[in-house]
């Protein structure tokens, strides 16, 4: 992937804002399996410590269940399982990230919350050709910050694929 970011090969685009605007985009970075990903921080409602998750029968294994967060019943997904990212155990570093998807609270387990960063919107590049661990359509773009490559996820598409799998699940 480094060769993609070498000078002259990156086709920058502005998916998130007005063309040519040099605005900053705040991202929350986290780890799923052994990969680092990020989301637009505006989509993150809250980050919770691990809490009991109530299993829902007859659901795919990536649907961990539901939680009661401040009186709201919210589904919990494990995108590591959904996309085969590895890492089967949830340890003390794991967090539950509550996000808004189509004005609905949904949450997923992240193996570790890393940090919050700000990047120039104009630095976001389209997904390069090649193999990523998550489906290409689930990636909103890729950027570089210092020596880090930041893979920005498309929550709406991830949720859409999860919903499709749930609808088609036959226990």
Detailed description of the structure:
With 171 residues, this protein is mostly beta strands. 11% of the residues lie in helices and 41% in strands. It has helices at residues 79-83, 155-168, and strands spanning 24-32, 35-40, 44-49, 63-69, 72-77, 95-101, 104-110, 112-120, 139-145, 148-153. The strands form two sheets. The chain has a five-stranded mixed sheet. The chain is globular, with a radius of gyration of 16 Å. The model is unreliable at 1-18 (pLDDT under 50).
Give the neighbour order of strands across the main sheet: 8-1-2-10-9
Spatial gap, N to C terminus: 38 Å
From N to C, what is the helix and strand string?
A: EEEEEHEEEEEH
Give the C-alpha Rg: 16 Å
Fraction in beta strands = 35-45%
Q: Helicity range of the residues? A: 10-25%
User: What is the tally of beta strands?
Assistant: 10
User: What number is the mean pLDDT?
Assistant: 85
- C-alpha geometry: globular
Structural class comes to: mainly beta
Described by strand count, sense and barrel closure, the largest sheet is:
5 strands, mixed
Number of H/I helices: 2
> Which spans of ≥5 residues are poorly predicted at pLDDT below 50?
1-18
């Amino acid at each position: 992937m480094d060769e993609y970011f070498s000078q002259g090969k990156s086709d920058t685009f502005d998916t998130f804002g007005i063309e040519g605007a040099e605005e900053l985009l705040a991202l929350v970075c986290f780890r799923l399996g052994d990969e680092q990903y990020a989301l637009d921080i505006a989509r993150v409602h809250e980050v919770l410590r691990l809490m009991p998750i109530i299993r829902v029968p007859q659901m795919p294994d990536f649907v961990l269940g539901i939680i009661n967060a401040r009186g709201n019943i919210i589904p919990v997904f494990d995108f590591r399982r959904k996309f085969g990212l590895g890492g089967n155990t949830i340890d003390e570093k794991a967090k539950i990230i509550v996000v808004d998807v189509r004005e609905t609270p949904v949450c997923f387990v992240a193996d570790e919350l890393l940090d919050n960063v700000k990047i120039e919107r104009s630095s976001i590049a389209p997904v390069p050709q090649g193999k990523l661990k998550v489906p290409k359509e689930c990636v909103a773009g890729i950027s570089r910050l210092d020596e880090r490559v930041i893979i920005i996820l498309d929550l709406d598409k991830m949720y859409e694929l999860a919903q499709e799998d749930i609808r088609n699940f036959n226990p």
